[in-house]
Amino acid sequence: MRPINSIIEEVRSEARLIRTFRLDRDLSPRPGQYLMLWIRGVDEIPMSFSGPDCITVQSVGQATEALFEMGAGSSVGLRGPLGNGFTLKGDKILLIGGGVGSAPLAFLGERARASGLAVTSLLGFRSKEDIIFQERFEALGEVIITTDDGSYGIAGRASAGLKEFSLFDYDQIYLCGPEMMMWDVISRTREHATKTQACINRYFKCAAGICGSCCLDPDGTRVCLEGPVITADRLLESEFGRYRRGPTGEKGPCRG
Fold it and tell me: Is 188 helix (H, G, I), strand (E, B) or coil?
């Protein structure tokens, strides 16, 4: 798939180092799918959708720093939508998000409510200043927020809020955030792994299932193609939460 040109129509600041970019193209994605964003002269990077025509981005490196220098009217290249998105199931769902990983869950939650599902959200952030999309989630149903520094809501990671719920009450659980935050949740809720859909991140190059850069040990799941949404029971048997591979294929520590 070749990149298509797109114009950034609007840039909104959501929190420290987090911005939403609204594009001039509605690519009709499913929540959980992603696009490859080509910042000309810099790099091409994967970004999850936070709406039909939006991506929400945290500035963490050279490519995102270059993107943050762009404003309305700037052009970028797009490939997508790509990958396996979330699948809505049941009547009552729980969204568990961490940091900027909450963005695709807001998109999912809005689709779920429009389909008549009951939505509850558990969201974790570093601090009060890092909270994003609180009003979007509150419009969907009950929301519990945790902060690492205790400046808002429950003190601790998102997993600290699990005590507020009986997970047996939910037909499906949807998870997205930093890897170690997600691993913390998955490892504590193993009995619910088969009904937990997690949107994960790996190093992507081709985004076409060819190069193998994003494959998970030990079964070779291609995250760019068969993911990025993968059920937690499969992640429990993989490298997830233990290590991840970098651009050259070397093993390195997980983040978050």
Answer: helix
Give residue for tokens 């859909």. 197
Whether 173 and 96 have beta carbons less than 8 Å apart is answered as yes
Tokens of 41: 């002269």
Domain 4-82 carries which CATH code? 2.40.30.10
Fold of 92-252: Rossmann fold (3.40.50)
Sorted by sequence, the CB contacts under 8 Å of residue 81 that are 6+ apart come out as 27, 28, 29, 30, 33, 34, 35, 49
pLDDT digits 0-9 by tens, 2-23: 899 999 999 999 998 999 999 9
Q: What residues does each domain of the chain span?
A: 4-82, 92-252
pTM reported for the whole predicted model: 0.96
- Three-class secondary structure assignment of 37-61: EEECCCEEEEEEEEECCEEEEECCC
Q: Which residue has the tokens 């079964």?
A: 219
Rounded-to-integer distance, Cα 108 and Cα 132, Å: 15
Condensed to tens digits (0 to 9), the pLDDT of residues 142-191 reads: 999 999 999 999 999 999 999 999 999 999 999 999 999 999 999 999 99
